[in-house]
Fold this sequence. Notes:
With 1238 residues, the chain is mainly β.
Amino acid sequence: MEMIPKMASVVAQASGVSLRTPENSHLGxxxxxxxxxxxxxxxxxxxxxVEDEDRQPFYVGxxxxxxxxxxxxxxxxxxxxxxxxxxxxxxxxxxxxLRVDDYFVDSIREVAVGIPAYMRMWILNTAxxxxxxxxxxxxxxxxxxxxRPKFTLRQLSDDLFVIEIVAHLQGACVFGVKCRGITLxxxxxxxxxxNPQWSPTNSFAVVPTQxxxxxxxxxxxxxxxxxxxxxxxxxxxxxxxxxxxxxxxxMKVKDNKDGSHVLFFKATKIGRYKIEVSAFNDNIRGSxxxxxxxxxxxxxxxxxxxxEGCKKAVAGCVHEFVxxxxxKYGNSRLVLQSGEKWNAELVEVNTGxxxxxxxxxxxxxxxxxxHCDYRAFKAGKYEMTLxxxxxxxxxxxAAMPNHIVVLPGITSGKKSILTVSTTNGYWTMRDQKKVxxxxxxxxxxxxxxxxxxxxxxxxxxxxxxxxxxxxMEETSDSAAVGAGLDVKVNNxxxxxxxxxxxxxxAGKYLCHVKxxxxxxxxxxxxxTLMPAFLHVPSCVALDMMKNVIKGGVTGLVGEENIVVVQGxxxxxxxxxxxxxxxxxxLQFKPDAHTVGKVxxxxxxxxxxxxxxxxYSITYKTNxxxxxxxxxxxxxxHIMHSPIPLCMKGQRDIASVIVDQSSxxxxxxxxxxxxxxxALDTFDNRQLSGGMTMYPExxxxxxxxKMILQDxxxxxxxxxPLRTEVVDNNDGSYDIFYESRYIGEYNVIIKYSDENNKAxxxxxxxxxxxxxxxxxxxxxxVAAEVDRSSCTISDPHFTAEAGIRSHFTIITADRYKNxxxxxxxxxxxxxxxxxxxxxxxxVLLECEVEDNNDGSYHVHYTGKISGAxxxxxxxxxxxxxxxxxxxxxxxxxxxPTACIFEGEGIHTAKCGEQASFTIVTKDKxxxxxDHVNEKFQVFLQPHAHVKQVxxxxxxxxxxxxxxxxxxxxxxxxxxxxxxxxxxxxLFVFYLPxxxxxxxxxxxxxxVTDEWSSxxxxxxxxxxxxxxxxxxxTTAKGNGLGGTLAGRPGVVAVNVRxxxxxxxxxxxxxxxxxxxxxxxxxxxxxxTVSQREGSTNEFIVIYxxxxxxxxxxxxxxxxxxxxxSPFSMTIxxxxxxxxELRVHNNDLIWDSxxxxxxxxxxxxxxxxxxxxxxxxxxxxxxxxxVSIAEALLESEDRFGHYIQRKKTMSLHSRIAxxxxxxxxxxxxxxxxxxxxxxxx
Length: 1238
């Protein structure tokens, strides 16, 4: 321990300044890295050299070595490792002299220019050395290098030596160290001096981990170089960014100008903030740093409340709301401190009444909330006061800006206040309650203030006030709802109600006033209505009202009758005191039905006051009839005045009349009523019954007999009807009768008085006379239509197409009585019975005509023939018995609807049977069923056609036509034409039966003449018939003969059997053959159709054999006219000029024509052609392809031939011997080949 001051002094002497300050860069505050050695952790002693914790440890080392050595640390660890060091190198205690392995050097490799660097050396066995090592035992010598640093050796202790190295130039250098003549084992040492640079790994910032909102946060930022020294050069590129839950605007950075900085900022929003510090675009060590900002102390003014309970409440109900405590910056509290207490209460603004609020803290996520509830009993406006007591005892309180309005609770009728008042009455005390007494018609006013069960006045009431009064009888405790009370209740919409009760019926009442189904205060209460003053129009005649019959009052003639008038007020209450006079005036009604003597002078009767509110009037009259009694007082009539009054007359019936409501026209099968009214001798109606009536209703003898389906019922029809009499006890009698048969019936009525039979001899019934001597008759008419009783008359169910027909439906009732009026709905539908599958329905046009006599004509018209099924419904229901089948027959043949079809109306050939078909139809398209209808066909050549010689051009050629009926309305017409040209075809028609108005093609017929019955006309192209050998002829010079080796030419004219030019058909062959006298076929023959001719063919034959020959020309295997032809083939010595040539009818040889075309020689005669042929070698060459078409034209004036198509010579000319052979036959080219050749 005594060596510590000595070591400190040695260091101070060696360096001059032992502690590093910001003005110099020595051993003080800048840590440096040192090279790592295997003995590093075990080196050091137990000396506390620089163990001041307030200072930065003393570091010695160089950049590039990972491990750092602290001198303080090494000294502290020496005590624990001293024993281990000895065990690690036990030879230290055995050798007295220093060896190479007895020391350890902490070498460095790199130093900063201008900044001292230190290299430490430890002597490991100083305790065992014979002589201690001092700094004088060391020898430092520079070996080589650009940088020549300054070396200073200092001894800090007996075993620790320090070499201070200061380099002023960049570059490398080498130096050696010896101790007592022994070179250290790592010597020489290589050192490289470099300039200092900013190091992000050595730079750092001191950042607090957490703080509170509103506190100023200090962050110390230190920038160092690679050697651990402060680096001021990083200030220009220093970048500090702060991010977090809120943007911090005010942030201050202080630059100490020595590479260190201080950052000041204040956060008001809780959360985690990040501080990112960078220089030269690179973050320092540990960046970004994180700071947790916590909320500060609570502030009641910033508290937030949510929920309906913090706005309004209802008295007596528990209301809740949520309170969120916050600090003064509005941040939510995350936790509550141990001593933190919150209190809240409500204070009523007007009365100062306080209400405690219960607060329970709850955790909601990371926030702390208070669940608050309270209950206020008094309605009003409350302020909320909030206070918080902190852990240190400080109390913070605040009044919330919002007010809580406590509304009144549910309406309570018991707490509501009722006030009763009146302006026309008074009250008395009965049974400790007020009983109000007032006149009928006066108002009893009510006023109700609604309150809740806590007595709070309600300012708005939605409940309905119910006011009900019960009438209390004097002799019974039972209550009944009072009549004549007008109860009105009005809701003022401010919590109050106003009502009024107006009574018209006198008596005692019990009034109930309820609000919210509860009796209000002071309810129920009694009130009594007393009668008002007498009101004449409300008074009533009591006796008369009890005997009202048919709107009047009865009385007896010659007897005194009394009427009592009851005095009443205007509400109908009986008045119990007298004091008035009434007068009754009796006058006969001017419109009464009576013939008795009636006085027109009014009769007056005065009243008698009974002093109890009633008045008696006595009246008497000797004339029966209808009267009117007027009861008046002070010129005012009582109720129902004038009162109708009927005075009864005599009881005996003098006559009867029939009431207007009687059924004098009844329906068969239904019960009918006949009401009669009995009259006395004065023709007054009897107002009481008691008479027995004997009516008799029989059918009149002169009634027309009705046609019934059952004649046996006629006898039953003549019997009297069964009747029933009902006494109405008012002078009228109802006679009920019923009949099933229609007709007019006589009614005879007899009567007897049942009241006069007692004690008297029974009398026979007397017949009653009808008023004015009239006869009483009733009529029975048919009942409603019965569908099953309806029948059909005139059953015409077959009609012709297009002809309207009808049948009749007779309607009857269920008793078979025919209806004699219309109005029954008859619906008729008919459709075709059989139709092809998939076709639409064919309906029949039906129309129903109402004859208004019970019969209905059903008219129907059909257009399509066939059987139809009808469906007839009566009043919407189908009647099977009336549904019949209706048949529509085809109509007459309509020429305009006939169809003409077949090839015979377009083309035909002479000599061949032609035909066409006539399909007959009526105008609706139906095929008639008529047979043997007459058709006549005529053919006439067209007007522009050249007539045949010997025929009249104006005459109509009648062609034999045969008409064959094929069934289904079809007629086949066949005819045989004989002339080839355009013909007009005329078809005439003579119908089996005629109907006027038919319209034909061109004209309408009125007679049976054929000339007026033309129905069809067309043009037919009749062509020539089949080619016939018997009419085909041949001509030409070749028929006489030719020269040997020269061709002979013959023209064949082909015609049909009627001598019309024709071309052979495809199955017909025109052939030619040359036969010698022995019957052998010789030479060659060719047949070709002449160009420009339709029926003319050229036959060319050639033979080298002289003598007699026959030329056989056949058509379809038959010889033509004069075939075979005899001819002579002469010698070839004859000159060509001697050949017969006909210029007018020149037959051109194909060989000659070919030669002319090749040389373009215009030839005008056959002689020139013969000369040209002789010049070419006597016909040694001929045309090969005769089938090739040659177009030729003949000029009537110039007689020349011109070739229109060029033909090459090498394909046309060949040796004649190679082409012509005896078997060669050339048939007529077909139409297709002719077209292609052209």
